[in-house]
Structures are given as C-alpha cells and as structure tokens.
Amino acid sequence: MSPADRPLAPIYLVQGADPALVSQALSKLLEELAPRCGGSAVIEEYGEPGKDEPVQLGPVLDACMTPPFLTDRRLVVLRALSSGLDAAQAKALAAYVAAPLDSTVLVVALSGKAAPAALAKAVKANGEVIQAEPGSGARAKSAWFTEQLRAAPIRLDGQAAALLEQHLGEDLARLSGIVSSLTSTYGEGARLSVAELTPFLGEAGGIAPWDLTGALDRGDIDSALGALARLLGAGGRHPLQVLAILARHYGAMLRLDGAGIADEQGAAAATGLHPFPAKRALEQSRRLGHDGVARAIALLAGADVDLRGRIGWPPNLVMEVLVARLAQLARRGARTSTGRASAPGRARHMSGAR
User: Fold this and answer.
1) CA–CA dist 156, 145 (Å, integer)
2) If you ran DSSP here, which 8-state letter would residue 77 be given?
3) Boundary residue ending a domain (200, 229, 249)
4) How many other C-beta atoms are found inside a 10 Å radius of the C-beta of residue 200?
5) What is the C-alpha to C-alpha distance for residues 44 and 65, in angstroms, rounded to an integer?
6) Of 142, 106, 145, nearest in space to 122 by CA
7) Are 118 and 85 contacting, i.e. CB atoms less than 8 angstroms apart?
8) Residue 188 maps to which CATH number?
9) How many Å apart are CA 232 and CA 270, to the nearest integer?
C-alpha cells in the first residue's frame, strides 16, 4: 500500500538523533500529508528548529482540540528539535492521542533523545512513528542510503552510488542537498555516472570509527590515514577522542590476549562487545600475537603523553604517526603470526611469561 492510500493517523512522530535529518523527514511527511488533508487544510506550526526555548504545549493542544473553520482538517505541527519534551508534556500529548479530534492531524518532530515512554507508547498504539535516520551499523546505513537513492528523482550508476556513499560517510544529511542539486542540473530521470556526480561532492564527510579500526586491522596505512583525517576533519573529533576509540579497540585485544578464549561468545563475554566485533577483536589479537598487542598498547600510551605536551608536535601529527605505526604492526602480524598466535597453548604460555 502506497503512503497516499493509507488512512490518515491522528498523530505522526518523526524522530532521530540528527536534527537536519529529522527536518528533512518532516518536510517530506508534510508534503505527503498536506494534499491528503485536503487542498484547503489549515497548517499550524509551533516551535522553531534550533531554538533552546522550552516548548509551550498549551497552544498546541488548543489547536488540536479546535475544529477547523471552513476546511476539512487542521494539520498541527510541533517542532521540538532542540528543546524536546519533558515527561509532563509527553503525558499530556499521550492523553490527547488516546482521544483525538477526527478533524486534526498532529505531527511532532523530535531530535536527540528518543520520545518519552508515555508518548512513544501512545503513538505506536494510535499513530505512526517515523525514524528519520538509519539504525546503527554499517549494513543498516548502507541499506538506508540505497533506499534514499531508490526514491530519488535521478539515478546513479553503481560506481557513482558507491562513491557518494563513501564520500558522505556519517554526514547523511547532505545527501538530500546533493540529490536536489543533481536533479536541478540534469533533470528528473537523468542517469548519472561518476563524471557527472564528482563536481557536486564537496568536502568529504565524517566517517564511522570502524572505518579507521578496520583499516588498521588490515594494515592499510593509506586508508587508515585517510580515515583519521576524516574523523579529525569533517567528523569533528578531537585527537584525544580518536585516541580513546583506539584504546577501546586495542584494549579488547589485550583482554583476549592469552585468555584461552576460542569463540566469539567467550570473546563477547570477556570484552563486553557484541559477538561480531568481539570475534574480530579475537581474530586480530591472534594475528598480532602477544608482542604485537603489547606494542600497540605501548604506542597508545606514548601518544597519550605526547598529546598532553611531552613533545611539541601538532596533535594531528601525533595521531598520524600513531596510526601509521599501528597499521605497520598489523602488516607484520599478518606476515609472522599465521598459525602461531591462534594456538591456545602458546597464547597461555606467552601470557604467563609477561
């Protein structure tokens, strides 16, 4: 059933962590709802995106409970992107949703924290919840990205789509603007390649931390340095934040080194990670071997002291040297530890020799 064929709900909740993505999803929803509410539907908006002023809920509820004049429906929009809703406001909205006015459609947009439990429960029972962004994890983001391109008025070939996804990284809110620019330039229905896309890319967006740790585990120095630059640049992370990401990554390997753990369930229990990243940490710990893991931890400790003023290098240079050395460690581990580090007896022996 297409969106236009579904019955109108009394309330729509649009939520997500990124205010820009929530705003885009809200605009798309309103474009869909306005004609479905009738050409003469009255749209009343409350709240302003980006403002930290508390939401005044009284006028919103008054609008919801007032029948429209000379129109079929009233469309009420509450933007609470930065200020959010407190528990009392959520409870009051939930009470309205339990007995809504048939002639009112209420749309609430929230970003940051998830909707309070009372409101979320009421909306799930009587309305629709719209997640404005993908779930966590690379697969969820890739699926979301593919779905957005599928719904776009232009078509990118496989190479262009892959380039755009890689270039934007975590900066998903830019996708809509790039698609709009491509559409206005080439027209709806245009089929575009990398050559047509490239002039519209702009600066590379931030990326997920696992892009850096994955490159390090592969020993890919160039990709690791590129990922570091994007985390520090468009990603907006401080060098100490990136160092903390690496400390967690190699700290998991340290906990597994010499522990005699043979499977991902045991690794997950020992590290507190989900099974898949725990399995990867176990595999990488075996590749590096005891000496490699110990060397990685020593490099991290040295970089921490350097970032805090031991040497006069710029912080970004400290991190670049650290990342290059960690990637080089993985290269050595891939050449020298095949078969040896995976032997539990040897791991226990090395652990006891520490």
Assistant:
1) 12
2) E
3) 200
4) 15
5) 13
6) 106
7) no
8) 1.10.8
9) 30
In this structure, what CATH number is given to the domain that contains residue 28? 3.40.50.300
Grouped pLDDT means (10 residues each) for the chain, 354 residues: 65 85 86 75 70 75 84 83 74 87 88 79 87 76 86 89 85 84 86 86 76 91 89 83 91 89 86 85 90 93 91 91 92 60 35 33
Structure tokens at 160: 């262009």
Q: What is the C-alpha separation between 84 and 17, in angstroms, rounded?
A: 12
- Give the C-alpha separation, 245 to 153, whole Å: 38
Q: Has this prediction a pTM greater than 0.85?
A: no
Domain boundary among 151, 183, 200: 200
The bridge status of strand 74-80 relative to strand 42-46 is parallel
Query: Domains in the chain: how many in total?
Result: 3
Shared domain check, 102 and 46: yes
**122 shares its domain with 157:** no
Could you list the residue range(s) of the whole structural domain that residue 176 is in? 138-200
The first and second tokens of residue 290, run together, are: 């005891």
Q: What is the pLDDT of residues 138-190, one digit of tens each?
A: 777 888 888 888 888 899 999 999 988 888 887 787 888 888 888 888 888 88
Report long-range pairs for 296-299 (Cβ below 8 Å, ≥24 apart): 296/250, 296/253, 296/326, 296/329, 297/250, 297/251, 297/254, 299/325, 299/326, 299/329
Percent of the chain with pLDDT over 90: 18
Both 24 and 86 in one domain: the answer is: yes
Q: Tell me which residue of 4, 68, 64, 60 sits closest to 36, measured CA to CA.
A: 4
Q: pLDDT tens-digit profile of 229-257?
A: 888 887 778 899 899 999 999 999 999 98
